[in-house]
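Residues determine shape. Take a concrete instance:
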Amino acid sequence: MNADRNLGKIARSLAVLAAVAAVTYAGKRLIPVNATTVAFAYFLLVLTVASTWGFVEALVASVSSALVFNFFFLPPFGTLTIWDPENWVALFSFLATALVAGRLSANAEQRARDAMERQRDLERLYTFSRAILLIEGGEPFPRQLARRLVETFGFSAAVLYDRRRDHFYREGPAEFDGMEDQLRDSARQGATFTDPARLRVITSVRLGSQPIASLALQGVLMPDSMLQGIANLVAIGLERAAAQDLAHQVEAARQSEQLRTTLIDAMAHEFKTPLTSIKAATTSLLATPGLAADTRSELITIADEESDRLKDLIDNAIEMARLDTSRIEVELQECQVDALVREVVASMHHEIEQRTVQIVVEGQPPVIPLDRRLMKLAIKQLLDNALKYSPASSAVRIRVRQANQAVQVELTDQGKGIPEPEQKRIFERFYRSHSARRQVPGSGLGLTIAHSIARAHGGELSVASRPGETTFCLTLPAAPKGEAIERRANSRG
């Protein structure tokens, strides 16, 4: 690079000599003029060269102009001797004025270039700051920071050492190895290392007075102020990433606590009904030993049935927690879907009570591999949802049919319907509309669990709703590959 710069200066100096020769020839041969006019022309040439190229070229122009002015335009002509002392004064005045003007013009040009360079540096710092704000998830945040550095400032290599993670993040087309010890020292002690020959610099990244990382850059040597600006922006970016990580951890903890709380609330609410019936039956038996045999048998039957219901509730609650927090393991066996639906309806006779539940089977749906326990839980969640959110006097229709290469289970109720904006969120965990929260108790997990079970089987759960009618459609592949389903389910876990 230095050789190219020197060659450029030589070429410009030769161009200056050619320009001086041209002015001399014009003043001597083409348009003969007096010495004052020629001196003014040389002076303008020196100013032009100084403002265009710099002081070195202006010095060449000044000296060469003074020499040829003396040789051709001051007596005795054709020599470098000056007879008249006034001409000596004029010559040195011309030379001094030309040099001073050239120096001033060169300084002004250099200040202009410095101002433009500072403006460009500020623009690049602004671009880098915007890039930090636009960094999203996916790759580690420090790696994206290093990449933005290379892209914005044109470094051939950049290495960011994050002291908190004790990890190096490398970016750029050039190799930049063997600097780990220096990067660690810089991050611990705040030291700076510079290698001008290789255009390398290592600087600490501080948050306040505390070093939190270090940065190694190669390919472009930056002024200290610029380097410090880059380090400050990197510190802000790393702190922003740390704040985001902390926010994610807090949100995960909050959701975990919310899950625990809602499960406990849901179980407490659901357990009250069978426990109340059991307690009433046993209290009557204990308080009245002489009850008739029929009455005693009826009370014992109630206690036994409610005990079974309580056991189912406990099993379902445990299953709900397992599905939401662990992986779904699907154990497949050949099942008749319509028979499975009837089993679920029969098991929910207490919830159904006087309600009408119509089961419509179209044709002869094929036998398909399912996890009986999980699928019954999914259908139960859908039926329980339909019973809760529809009038007690209305019927719930369950339709089982084959559609192309799938079996569909559709549950239709005659409730108020689900607004279209809420239909997109209804399968989100804990999501419940404000009106539902006030009218119907629940945890907001039932539909999420049913949706997860459907996906674990390679199927889908969708909803279509309008005022007065809502239909949940559970679609299951007629011949899914069991191994693929198990892998998919485990990966979701």
